[in-house]
């Protein structure tokens, strides 16, 4: 029974850690980590909240004044992804956003090293794997993964005129006033929460598994 339990733990450690790393990579690639919900009113004296926006075809204008996805490297409206930088002009991200980007980079790198090393050792010398070392690795990934949620407190989520750096947005602020913005969980952040839990469970199982 003990051998069976040990084998089950190894299978779980491997499966959960591989899945957590895959979710982290998917989160990075997906250009909608959180949804930025925007409330606007049209015209200086308008009383109706969120009536029809002025007819402006520029996608950057539509992104700035409609609900849209915020990713680590791009933003998303409907099924299209757009870069933050436009014609060499980039937004001024705050420390929370930059920390979130740094953390997802760390977890992708260190998680990949840990997972691939674990798979290699299981293939080459399954009976000699030091699971406590991997447990520390996975707990670190759990911390890094969780810190990516700092994006929810970044200026992309709470600064009313964050996209005013885009010329077409800046030129029309007299017609469209942003009165409220906030971010809510999206597919990317939900995958991050699941990955955080999986990293943590992998670390715990590694500690229980111990060393040979």
Topology of this structure?
Layout: H1 2-29, E1 34-42, H2 59-65, E2 68-70, E3 74-77, E4 80-83, H3 95-125, H4 131-147, H5 155-158, H6 167-170, E5 176-185, H7 187-209
Antiparallel strand pairs: 1-2, 1-5, 2-3, 3-4
Your description of this structure?
The structure is a single chain. By secondary structure, the protein is of the alpha+beta class. Helices cover 54% and strands 14% of the residues. It has 7 helices and 5 strands; from the N terminus they run αβαβββααααβα. The protein has helices at residues 2-29, 59-65, 95-125, 131-147, 155-158, 167-170, 187-209; strands at residues 34-42, 68-70, 74-77, 80-83, 176-185. It has a 5-stranded antiparallel beta sheet with strand order 4-3-2-1-5. Helix 4 runs antiparallel to helix 7 (187-209). Residues 44-51 have low confidence and may be disordered.
Summarize the structure.
The chain is built from seven helices and five strands.
Spell out the key features of this protein.
54% helix, 7 helices, 5-stranded antiparallel sheet
Shape: elongated
Which sequence of strands runs across the widest sheet? Answer: 4-3-2-1-5
Tell me the radius of gyration: 22 Å
Question: How many β-strands, per DSSP?
Answer: 5
Mean pLDDT: 81
The first-to-last residue Cα distance is 17 Å
Poorly predicted tracts of residues: 44-51
- Output the number of helix runs: 7
Structural class of the secondary elements? Answer: alpha+beta
> What is the ordering of alpha helices and beta strands?
HEHEEEHHHHEH
Strand content: 5-15%
Fraction of residues in H or I helices? 40-55%
Largest sheet: 5 strands, antiparallel
């Amino acid at each position: 029974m003990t051998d069976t339990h040990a084998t089950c733990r190894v299978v779980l450690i491997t499966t959960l850690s591989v899945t957590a790393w895959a979710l982290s990579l998917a989160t990075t690639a997906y250009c909608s980590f959180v949804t930025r919900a925007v409330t606007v009113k049209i015209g200086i004296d308008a009383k109706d909240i969120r009536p029809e926006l002025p007819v402006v075809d520029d996608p950057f204008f539509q992104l700035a004044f409609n609900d849209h996805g915020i990713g680590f490297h791009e933003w998303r409206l409907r099924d299209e992804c757009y870069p933050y930088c436009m014609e060499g002009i980039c937004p001024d991200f705050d420390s929370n956003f930059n920390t979130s980007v740094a953390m997802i980079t760390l977890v992708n790198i260190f998680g990949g090293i840990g997972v691939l090393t674990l798979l290699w050792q299981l293939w080459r010398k399954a009976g000699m794997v030091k699971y406590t070392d991997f447990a520390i690795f996975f707990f670190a990934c759990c911390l890094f993964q969780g810190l990516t949620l700092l994006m929810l407190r970044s200026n992309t989520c709470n600064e009313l005129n964050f996209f005013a750096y885009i010329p077409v947005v800046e030129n029309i602020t007299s017609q469209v006033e942003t009165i409220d913005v906030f971010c809510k969980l999206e597919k990317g952040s939900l995958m991050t929460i699941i990955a955080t839990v999986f990293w943590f469970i992998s670390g715990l199982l590694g500690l229980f598994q111990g060393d040979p």
